[in-house]
Amino acid sequence: MCLTIPAQVIRIEENTATVWQHDRAVEVDISMLRDRVQIGDWILYVSTMAVKKIEKKDADEIIDLLVSKPPIDIEGLDKKFVEIIKNSKVRDLTRDEIVYLLKSNSTEEEALYREAEITRKTYIRDFICVHGIIEFSSYCRHNCAYCGLRKDNSVIKRYRMTPGEIVEAAVNSVNVKGYKLLVLQSGEDEFYTTDILVEILKKIKSQCKAFIFISIGDRDFESYKKLREAGASGVLYRFETSNEKLSRQVQDKELSVRFEHLSFMKELKYFIATGSLIGLPGQTIEDLADDLLTLKKMSTTMISIGPFIPCPDTPFSGLVPGAINATLKMISVARLMMKNARIPVTTSLETLDPVNGRRLAMRAGANALMFNLTPEKYCKDYKIYPDRFIEKNSMLEKYALFNSDGSYKMLEKRLMGEINNNQQ
Hints:
Number of strands: 14
Distance between the termini: 25 Å
Order of helices and strands: EEEEEHHHHEHEHEHEHHEEHEEHHHEHHH
């Protein structure tokens, strides 16, 4: 669902209120709130519909996340930086231009973030998506060098949710909490056959209205076709790095297989979320630029890029994690290159900076949030990396979600439009 926007009521005429939002007046329909709204109240609205009253202190917290910093006058900066920023507004960036931006520092780096945020607000305004994720199995048949779920990690506690538990968690998230987009994620666990996953999807879809993304790794075309027909709308399937040599050091599968899967997923009209890790050992700025060009070439609709975090009991244990500022620059350049893309704030970024990570990413051009909906007895054991940031009962979750058929239709319109654009 979209994050609802806080605003203060300054005028009321029958079922229409004029509200002051950031720096402009907006007219919204307050018929859902009936006689409970008065001038001076704070309300939450989405599109042109008011959905809830809210306390000023809670409104301030959301506003702090959304309000931009003042723009920087880029004309006084390095001429090449200024030229590249101007080029990004009228044409695709070249590899050399992307590398230059990713190497920016100090004032240029801040200016890059501001330009990315301006681009987000210009093309998407405050359309901030709120997604939920259910991690239903920590078993995996692969041995990727960076991942705590790798098959040979005998230290972590493994779990599998039953099909009934998965359905219950999903339906509760939608019908009780108000989520409209869920990700069902696991390690590559063959215990869940295609038939089992199909039944899970059908049961969820029969009991609630929600868009379901699946993140289950490598399955063949026919499996993904059946899952699409059963109700899966999207896939989260990252390629991690576009450098083939680096990929062989990171994961135990051919990079070409990843791209073959992404190709047939697009053919099956999935909404595709993909991306790469930042800060892998041996990775260069040029590699990151190639990752962005790969995402651009694929017309990616959701870009998932986050920092590498070393995990104990893996070959990459004890290495230095990916840098936060490198991740933020990747988000910003991705926003300049793919202006309408959905760019989530990844949990890995929030793990490295639990206090400011979300705000920094939003101000660098991100426009989606992900909350963990895995049942309490399981979520601590999904140890893909250590000390994962898991936020429960978030104020944003409380105020972003609302049960309304209109909210589903709004998301449906956006998602279907993005999927159709991705096919062109």
